[in-house]
Specification:
Layout: E1 2-6, E2 21-25, E3 37-42, E4 46-56, E5 60-64, H1 74-77, E6 79-80, E7 85-92
Antiparallel strand pairs: 1-2, 2-7, 3-4, 3-7, 4-5, 5-6
Length: 99
């Protein structure tokens, strides 16, 4: 399944500035690797876009934003189980600074 989502925050800058759109692929099964960008459900914050920092089969995924100064820390998010991952970002638009 494919879905389009709009990036609202600044945590993934400069790769995904606010206003960018991402195309999210949600197949039944897939593997995620370090540096993949994913959308996931954070229990206290809703849907977030983060980068995979580490993968541990028994723990899940350790995720973090590219813009550390404006992102929830990976330690605060903690290990994210596979069931919370909505999908992998397979394409993105970059909002122009002049748009």
């Amino acid at each position: 399944m494919l879905s389009v989502m709009k990036v609202a925050g600044r945590s993934m800058m400069p790769a995904l500035p606010p206003g960018s759109f991402v195309l999210v692929f949600s197949p039944g099964k897939w593997t995620l690797d370090v540096n993949d960008v994913v959308v996931f459900r954070c229990p206290n914050r809703g849907k977030l876009v983060k980068r995979v920092l580490s993968v541990e089969p028994n723990k899940g995924y350790f995720l973090g934003g590219d813009n550390i100064a404006e992102s929830i820390s990976a330690a605060e998010i903690g290990w994210v189980p596979r069931r919370q991952i909505i999908g992998k970002v397979i394409w993105h638009s970059v909002k122009s600074a002049t748009a």
